[in-house]
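Re: duplicated header lines in exported structure tokens

Our pipeline writes sequence and tokens for each protein into one text file. With two proteins the header for the second block appears twice in some exports. Here is an export where it did not happen, for reference. First protein block:
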Amino acid sequence: MPIELLQPHTHAGRRLPAGARLDLPEASARWLIAQGVARLVTPDSPTPAASLKPSRRDGPAAAATSTGD
């Protein structure tokens, strides 16, 4: 069952970040979903990169905090 982590989680000894996608046995996936650690991935779910894209702040405050990278 495909899931996406909503928060960092250790799975099989590996530390995974929020947004990581896993394909788990149904019982494991449902347990993580019930704990609020993951959500079910459906065919219409956005990709992790799209859902984790930072929002852009416009205006003088954004210019003042820019690092120039």
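Second protein block, exported in the same file:
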Amino acid sequence: MSGTPPERPHSHQKGLITNHWNDLPTGYIPSPTSSTPRSTSRNSSTLAVGSTINRIASASPLRQSNGATDGCQPSQSRHDGDGPGGSATDDEAKPLDVLLPTLYNLPSTLSRNEHTMLQTRINKSLLPGKGDGGVTAPQRLWIRGLLHGFVVEGTIDGKAAKEEIVAFMRRESGVAGWASSVRKLVESVVEQSAG
């Protein structure tokens, strides 16, 4: 056995790697003045002329609301409408204390314990007298419209409802606890064949 340790690896620059551990050759670093499309798009913080990004519009409900319910004007909401895809007016949509039990009674793939836990979490946030979840009136209107379309009218399928709920959680703060529970219940509903 020889007494000399193995040679340490060398950097692309002169010296040992310990001296230049984070250095890259200049060809690997795009310069801000480079005219390549990759570096200009990476370094640019402006949009092209005429292009706009409207994230709220893409994630907002599909229909406009024409009235107020629960003391909330539609203009008070950060988005328009009371729920995606629903065709009922605010007066025709059933209240949450009717819609939620209807959702709970649909056939589900969840275990009884998990179903009960999700139901309790949702009720504490959305139903008056069960708890204070800090849910705003526009948020109640939105979930009411979604559930009406999913449970009563059948105009919203499970996949669309899930996508709408996920978009809702992204744009609203403080709703993840109960909204993710609604999403999980909606996903677990067993679709019944019309045959």
